[in-house]
Each structure stands twice: as structure tokens, then as C-alpha cells.
Amino acid sequence: MCHAIKRLFCGMGVNPAVHELDEDPLGKDLERALIRLLGTSSVVPVVFIGGKLIGTMDRVMACHINGTLVPLLKEAGALWL
């Protein structure tokens, strides 16, 4: 799933900052915090755009399909179309 999100953003011309929790010494703590924040057991990948929590892959894909993802990326300065 992480690969799919990265491909989506890169395909749009966005260069995402990626934090691999499994490679971070505090990754498990961060994952637990995200689980509490989102109220779900499946949080990876989770996407923040411009410091704002967007959500998991389902939410990102819904934003992409309904046309709200590009404005979010533009507002954050991650996309210059």
C-alpha cells in the first residue's frame, strides 16, 4: 500500500517526504500514536499534506477520485499546476 501511495504522488509530480516506521527506532511508538489518533488498527500508510492529517490510503484515494487531492497539494505548495 505504501508503494501505491508513493507512485500516485510521484505520478502527479509530487515529491513526498516518506517516513518508514519500520526503519525508525521510534516507529512502533509513532504507529501506536497514529492508531489512537485515527481510531483504527490499520494506519500504514497514513498521509499528511501540509502538516494536515488526510488519513489512510482509502481517504487519499477518495480525495483523488473526487478531485479534492490536487487542491490540497496545491495549497500545501507540493504541486505547481
Per-chain topology:
Blueprint (H helix, E strand, L loop, with lengths): L1 H10 L15 H12 L7 E4 L2 E5 H10 L2 H7 L6
How is this structure best summarized?
With 81 residues, this protein is mainly alpha-helical. The chain is built from four helices and two strands. The termini are far apart.
Characterize the structure shown.
- It comes from Arachis hypogaea.
- Residues 1-54 form the Glutaredoxin domain.
- InterPro entries: GlrX-like_pln_2, Glutaredoxin, Thioredoxin-like_sf.
- This is Glutaredoxin domain-containing protein.
- There is one protein chain.
- The protein has 81 residues and is mostly helical.
- It has a single domain (1-76), classed as Glutaredoxin (3-Layer(aba) Sandwich).
- 48% of the residues lie in helices and 11% in strands.
- The chain contains 4 helices and 2 strands, in the order ααββαα.
- Strands 1-2 form a two-stranded antiparallel sheet.
- Strand 1 and strand 2 (52-56) form a beta hairpin.
- The longest helix is centred in the middle third of the chain and has 12 residues, at 27-38.
- The relative contact order is 0.16.
Calculate the mean pLDDT score and round it: 91
Give me the CATH superfamily. Glutaredoxin
Assign a percent range to the helix content.
40-55%
The tally of beta strands, per DSSP, is: 2
Strands of the widest sheet, in order across it, are 1-2
* Percent in strands: 5-15%
Order of helices and strands: HHEEHH
Query: CATH top level?
Result: Alpha Beta
The secondary structure category is mainly alpha
CATH architecture heading: 3-Layer(aba) Sandwich
Rg for CA atoms: 13 Å
- Largest sheet composition: 2 strands, antiparallel
Number of domains: 1
CATH topology: Glutaredoxin
- Helix count from the secondary structure assignment: 4
**Poorly predicted residue ranges:** none
* Span between termini: 26 Å
Principal-axes shape call? globular
